[in-house]
Design goal:
The chain has 406 residues and is an alpha+beta fold. The longest helix has 21 residues. The relative contact order is 0.13. It is 39% helix and 20% strand. Bound molecules: magnesium ion.
Length: 406
């Protein structure tokens, strides 16, 4: 007989807003918008009070200001949010046997076999209470047999609550909910489903699997399974396959610093592009050099979560400058981004604006169409093709900030 699994999904409520309120309690219960503060900025996060005005993340800041003029507007601070996120991660790490951090404010925890189901409920509650007590941040969770049902349950539990879905009632829990609540269904698929007259999950449950496959292909069968509360995907332990890296061995050892920096810039860009393509952010970068005598050195640095070239490149170049001390010929250089989590790169652009967002979006679009090296910044020009065109992160459907429930 298969073992019943116990999977918890935990998600901090309006995470950026909650962090700001911890730092300044005058902000409690005020409507708050976080994001680029200029007129061309984008809302990265907003408090529940602003949602009554129809505001959501991803909306232009100018429009949000018009809808709710009394809102307090705050330029986000990734360094602060990363710090709070790490504190929460440490608490989860201390108390959970297997967990996966999927974004800056979101975790899956596998409690299978910890106890009978009641024991798992108790443990999930204890972890949540501990986080609230030790950090002051509100957090919600869903507990069920699998990731999909638990994630949807968290959404239904919010704000600052929990929801447990017992074995056998997954389908009936899902059936009255909008199909929009299924994590993989974005705006486009939602519109397609609506045009077929499908609004609630129950309708998909009653459709034959073959029909969903015929209309939506392979995605259709995944959607059908999720709608029926079926999801076998495992909780992947934190830090497994959570990095991207690239390195280059020279045909002839070199001491040409300009050439080395040009190549490092190109490598940093390519890896950042891979991050954005997979909707990932990094919080740790490292540079490796191997001298002609085969001595190898690496230097790493923790940084606030980002996937932006203009943030990453200066860090990589300064690491290289600190590392390259021996004035010996270099045989190999490498760049690595690790501690990856899911997340949209908009959040690393608080001080910037829609302009940067659009710039990266169009650069990435060209790269997708014409290949990785079709668009490179001038300083990286001339480096040969490195990196890959395919998405290195299999399976995880990219979550846009705009579609996220916080
Ligand atoms: Mg959240």
């Amino acid at each position: 007989m298969p073992i019943n699994r116990s999977i918890v999904h935990m998600d901090l409520d309006t995470f950026f807003v909650s962090c700001e309120r911890l730092l300044d309690d005058r902000l409690k219960s005020k409507p708050i918008l976080i994001g680029g503060t200029s007129d061309r900025g984008v809302v990265a996060s907003c408090s529940y009070e602003t949602r009554l005005f129809g505001i959501h993340s991803g909306m232009p800041m100018r429009m949000a200001k018009m809808l709710c003029p009394e809102a307090v507007i705050i330029r986000g601070n990734t360094a602060n949010y990363s710090k709070f996120s790490n504190v929460v991660t440490d608490i989860v790490k201390e108390n959970a046997p297997v967990f996966e951090k999927t974004s800056i404010d979101e975790f899956y925890i596998d409690l299978t076999g910890m106890d009978k189901f009641y024991g798992c409920k108790k443990l999930a509650n204890e972890i949540r209470s501990k986080i609230i007590k030790e950090t002051g941040l509100p957090i919600s969770f869903g507990l069920s047999e699998n990731k999909t049902v638990s994630k949807i349950a968290t959404g239904e539990a919010k704000p600052n609550n929990k929801l447990e879905i017992d074995y056998g009632v997954e389908k009936s829990f899902l059936s009255p909910l909008s199909v929009k609540k299924i994590p993989m269904i974005g705006d486009k698929t939602y519109q397609e489903l609506r045009s077929l007259g499908v609004r609630v999950i129950k309708t998909i449950q009653e459709m034959p699997l073959e029909l969903m496959e015929r209309v939506f292909g392979k995605n259709g069968s995944v959607m059908w399974k999720k709608a029926n509360g079926i999801d076998n995907s495992p909780v992947v332990q934190h830090n497994e396959r959570k990095s991207v890296s690239t390195e280059r061995t020279f045909e002839k050892d070199t001491i040409d610093v300009v050439k080395l920096k040009t190549l490092l810039t190109a490598m940093s860009e390519d890896l950042a592009f891979q991050l954005r393509k997979g909707s990932k952010l990094t919080s740790c970068v490292s540079v490796k050099i191997r001298y002609s005598d085969f001595n190898t050195y690496t230097l790493q640095q923790k940084i606030p979560y980002t996937s932006s070239d203009h943030v990453l490149i200066p860090v990589i170049l300064s690491l290289f400058e600190r590392l390259y001390k021996r004035r010996l010929l270099i045989r190999l250089i490498g760049v690595k981004y690790s501690n990856l989590v899911n997340g949209c790169f908009q959040m690393s652009l608080f001080e910037d604006t829609l302009k940067y967002y659009n710039l990266y979006a169009s650069v990435d679009h060209l790269r997708q169409r014409f290949g990785d090296r079709s668009v490179v910044r001038a300083s990286g020009f001339g480096a040969k093709t490195i990196g890959r065109a395919d998405n290195p992160f299999n399976g995880n459907a990219p979550l846009l900030l705009a579609n996220r429930k916080q």
